[in-house]
Design goal:
The chain has 14 helices and six strands. By secondary structure, the protein is α+β, with helices and mostly antiparallel strands. It has a six-stranded mixed beta sheet, with helices on both faces. The chain is elongated.
Length: about 375
Amino acid sequence: MPPIGPGRRAHGRAPHEAPVVVRLLAHVPAWARAGGSAAAAGRVLLLFGGAVVILGALCLGVDGHGLRVLAAMSGAMLALVCVSLRVRWHRDGWGTLAFPLALLLALGAVGLTTTGIASAFVGLIPLCFVYAGLFHPGRAALALLPAACGAYVAMASTLDGKAVVRLVIYAVTWWGTAQVIALATAYQRDVRRRLRTDARTDLLTSLANRRDLEERLTRAVAGDCVVIADLDHFKRVNDSRGHAAGDAVLERFGHVLHEHLRRRDYAARYGGEEFVLILPRTEPVQALNMLRALRAEWAEEGTGVTFSAGIALITDGAPAGSALAAADIALYRAKQAGRDRFRIATEGLAAARRPGAGPQAPGVRDHSSDRPGGRRDQHAGC
């Protein structure tokens, strides 16, 4: 059964980021990391390439014309870096390939406009494919090959048969480098994703665990419903049938939750036999009807175990933490009332429906019809 937790309900794809590079980029100033790690690494690639060309040319000796060409190239690359700070980059897009392409075009321009020094910078070309492998799928290297080959031809001192053979060897090596790095990076991302999922998933029920719940509660907003469900007399199951039977009941309840909830809903094992549900954009009465349907579905499992639940609405005056506490009180009232029933916490509910109203006294709404027999509850909530 796939987990309802972080792996199942994550929005969007994970960004193509290499964890090692991300740690290195942590030392880059915050303003330079605008647009994500791929954009930040692209800026570093351009600045590094430009610095190597300028310093190398000065060491090798360059005439006035060549110096002007290099200065113009460096200015253009610096301007591109500045412009990139204003661009809204898509983390999963291929737009950041503009950085290695710009460096390849600059190297080609150096080869076409200078003499005697351009071939010394052929070693910068593989860096473009390393970048592509770190932040893009392996096939992205194909988009760089024409520009890389053109830059090599422009930088080569002579272009004979041996130079063509060398270019073919280089091109295959560049492409292969990008593939290896892309595969290694994808594997590393997959391992991190699995470790994160395992760390935030309850192994028995395959629902999210308490650690993941705490993070999910921080993203809950006003209008969401929080539900705490607790299996009734669960200790009796462990005492009479054994802990293996109790684990089987918990596992089956998690499965029923997984199958019953909507895709946007969230479920976590809170601890022991308690479960927390977060139902986005859901009124308490809608949550109550969902629990009734869940109870009917759970009864078909034939475990003989019922559950009680408390419901609370998240409002501006009652954030997620307060709603969770209110739902816990409502659950306690449901247990007091005889179990196998549900209660809605009224704290903050009336205020949410009447924004001008003053603070409401904490309480629990009594729903006598939530019991299958329809009997009125003699133990009304506060």
